[in-house]
Amino acid sequence: MRAWIIRFASMYVFNVLVLLVVGWLTTARVGWSALWAAVILTLATLFLKPILARAFRGAATGMRGRAGLGEKTLEYVVVYLVAFAIWVVTFLLSGSDPDGFWGWVLPPLILLVGWAIYDAIDDRVEARAGALYDRAASAMGGAPKAPAETPAPNPAAEAGKRELRDGLTDEQRKLLDEL
């Protein structure tokens, strides 16, 4: 449960920022609707995006041989269609206004860039959000996380460490000592 809360919260904050950029760079009017639209966008990204991607990939696989398009081009089209579908769902449920053709076409491209950025930094963002979550939970009286147990010393691992220092294994050392 903790992992889902952290993932949702970090993605929500990121989506609010992406939606504000969309409102700033396109004709789409987002405004304060970005807060509600980010909830929809986050839920759609977490649950709907994998389903849509699988469906579009299935359809694209059937077209690949007939269309003659390059695999990467087809992959980009599929990802854009997923972003477009999520954009439509977000606007229909949030009450925002795309305001014209470019308000429908450009925001999915900005979403793609946002998803690529989030994909590159999500581990660090979620780790930081997890640390904040744990700190808040302990401040509210929640049980602090148990420290990780240190593993018992492993003779094979110790031998591996010695090997890294001089490049010799224990067997090789014995042979050299016997010479």
Could you explain the architecture of this structure?
- The chain is mostly helical and 179 residues long.
- It folds into two domains: 2-148, no CATH class; 152-179, no CATH class.
- The chain contains six helices and no strands.
- It has helices at 2-25, 33-67, 71-94, 101-139, 155-166, 170-178.
Describe how the helices and strands are arranged.
Elements: H1 2-25, H2 33-67, H3 71-94, H4 101-139, H5 155-166, H6 170-178
Helix pairs in contact: 1-2, 1-4, 2-3, 3-4
Give the low-pLDDT segments: none
Query: How many beta-strand segments?
Result: 0
Global geometry: extended
Task: Summarize the main sheet.
Answer: none
Rg on CA atoms, Å = 25 Å
How many domains, in number, for the residues?
Answer: 2
Summed over residues and divided by their number, the pLDDT gives a mean of 74
Which secondary-structure class do the elements indicate? mainly alpha
The rounded distance between the terminal residues' Cα atoms is 61 Å
What's the short story on this structure?
The chain is mostly helical and 179 residues long. It folds into two domains: 2-148, no CATH class; 152-179, no CATH class.
Key phrases:
179 residues; mainly alpha; 6 helices
